[in-house]
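User: Predict the structure for this protein chain, please.
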Amino acid sequence: MDASREAVSVWSYGLAAFVYAAFAIYLASGWRSGLRSRALFVVSVLCAFWGLAGLAFALTGQTIFLAIGMLADLFRYGGWFVFLLVLLKPHASRKERLPNRLRWLAGSALALVLIGLSAQIMAVLGTKTFFQPLRMVILDSLAMAVFSLVLIEQLFRNVSPDWRWSIKPLCIGLGGAVLFDLYLFSDSLLFSRVDVDAFNIRGFVHALVVPLVVVSAVRSKDWKTRIVLSQRATLQSVTLMAVGVYLLFVSAAGYYVRYFGGDWGRAFQLALLFAALLLLSVLSLSGSMRAKFRVLVGKNFFSYRYDYREEWLRFTNTLSSQDGFSEMGKHVINGLADMVESPAGALWLKDPTERFFAQAACWNMPVSSATEDADSKLCQFLLNSGWVINLEEYRSLPRRYDQLELPLWLIEVPNAWLVVPLATGSEMTGFVVLSTARTKIDVNWEVNDLLKTAGRQAGAFMGQMQATEALLEARKFDAFNRMSAFVVHDLKNIVAQLSLMLKNAERHRDNPEFQQDMLMTVEHSVERMRQLMMQLREGATPVDSPRGIDLGDVIRRIQTAKAGQGRHLELDLIDKAIAKGHEDRVERVIGHIVQNALDATENGGRVWIRLERQGDHAMIEVGDTGHGMSPEFLRERLFKPFQTTKPAGMGIGAYESFQYVHELGGKISVDSAINVGTQVSLLLPLFDSGVGTESAQIREEAK
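Assistant: Here is the predicted structure, written as structure tokens:
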């Protein structure tokens, strides 16, 4: 063996011994963690011993070390056989017998090792038989390489798709090294000689397997569960290893430059060394290279459940693909549900009055009319803790959720699983209820952190959209106010003209009946226009303070007015109720709801009003058997300004009624179905009992 080949062999087997010894030390602290880890540790030790034997033979050239290396190579293959068979073994009880397939494979592996051992012993002792022992050793080595490929193929084909990601690097690295051995032994068997160059670099080829085995070992948690590495320490180790490999490569290149360079060899060697050190300095100080190393370590040495880059890109794209505020709610639900494989969910958002949360969107989950007060224990818990509530965990371990009480409507939601808060800053804009996942998912700290962070991002998006929606509404109101100013200006002119006509008409006294009829008509027109002008100028907030109102009287007046229009209104006044408010505005609110019910109901249908007391509130129910409204209209358009189903309507009445009732501390709820009818329930706070009684007595005396 010449000097150059001797140097290659030394570096090759020395590198193999070093790498496998380092890997064995790395595995040493966790070798008791499982059968697979122990098997891999033993294989690493055998490979390191094989590398040392090859290094000793390259340095000394003594045949004894070649024989030791061949024996170590045999046991090294046997170790890989054991490790691969352990990986192929199904997770079952130790007392359970192995499947027939594995029993045959294990028997074949044992036979190959015993045959190879016998052949090597006969070759060392010089035993003469009908076959050459050394040729039998090569044939057995070739058979072990082929059998290794069979085991690798069985492993890769029979593992589950989820585990294939973990085992793939091992199969690629080990398969490549075995293919190299297949070439080496088949060439030796065919031509009765050993390819010296291939034999010399064999250690380097097998050393390349170690990084891929390390990746598989880290990905497979049950191989080595006791080793816990920090990303910072691993990054430094990978960097040092890369620098070491780089310097070894430069040293080898410098050796060949000097060896073949003749008189200029030393000069070329110094130039190469300077260029290599300069390049190493540039790479070491490069921020992009450090970032690439950091990404490499994070992706290949630390396995998390989620690929956060992909999750965040997908979630951001989902939120950004909305076509409006109504559609964004469904996108928020879909984005959060996809993270935990949930098939359904619903979104509750804060009401514009900020007093309660109501369902704003749903996906594969029933529409719910339930609301949750902003100061309830559920909302306060979500706001103060920021936790994702696991309802399954709450049912089994309620003590983990201190002072949390679930509302009845949430308990009744079918398959409710997780409650994810949507927060922005120190305020909560809403929450999402997700149903049970399609498959079993362990909701650990990683899932909770991901959902909480995604919830904050979704809350920021929702807050931005709500602000945009409020700005658009403000612009619409501004346009409406400008329109009202023109209407008021025109009405003032009309009132002035009619007033002048009224004064001139008083001169015509020849026809008293005509004059009287004209005067009544004009007076009525003027009065109506003045009321319209006052309504446009008044705005949403009355000047006077709320008083006690007898709702029974208000409802009877509405019935009388509608009867004059030829429509029948059924009354069911169960209790006498004195509510707090402004009589004209309350009458206008109830009258608006009644008029909508009459407009939606054909002749022959029923429209009714029911009045009763519910605790400290009066409940007014206005129902009809008319056309009804769709769930989408109820959820997205009913109480928003400039939304109407009437061709000539402006969509202000429902919004004004909603705002006024909530200003009084009341509540409006609607239950409607297409072609079935609608029921509108008004909850108005009762007036003080003493003041209410006094007001009622005054009305009785006035009558």
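DSSP finds 24 helices and 13 strands in the chain.
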